[in-house]
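seq:
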Amino acid sequence: QQQVNAIMFTILEKRELAPDTYWFEIEAPLVAQARQPGQFIIILAHDRAERVPISLAGGSRERNSIYVVIQAIGRTTKEIVNFEPGDSFHSVLGPLGSPTPIDLYGTCVCIGGGYGVAAVLPIAQALKEKGNRVTGIIGARTKDLLLLVDDMRKVTDEVRLSTDDGSEGTKGFVTDVLREMIEGNVKIDHVFAIGPVPMMRAVSELTRPFKIGTTVSVNALMV
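struct:
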């Protein structure tokens, strides 16, 4: 019991990715060692805080740390993003949820919409390490809101971008980019998509007629 109480969930690093959206590296030894792609955690900022589920964006087993991306959209997430390096959260519970099946599929497409790209990033990395050819598709409303593009480029074979206003990459949605690939006769063996539920539904409806296996995240519906 004394050893558990001694664990400090200290923020090691914080950086702003876009307005109101921040990347954190948090010291969490047990989670860091046990985490697998596709899982999430629950953060309590303080002892009376609301329990907030956050997808894992990766981590470092060497540093006993985990990575998360948090968008300040409600009272509790606004509280969390006000924490700075050196501060500690009250608790970090995890890893939770079923890990994403990582196999040798062949050619995979990993799609991240909005801050969903943070959750799909470790999946893309694991698929690449398994020997797959991996294309990342990142979408946002505008160029300034595209997240983790360089991080995705480091763990994939290529990255394609889409913006609603056409300020970067394809003008339109991530499904428009995926449709371009399919109509361009790119052989796709499996698609992984994480983001807003309407986006994941649209991806699934696009791939279904082509019998392309598609995995999405239902954390938002379950928690």
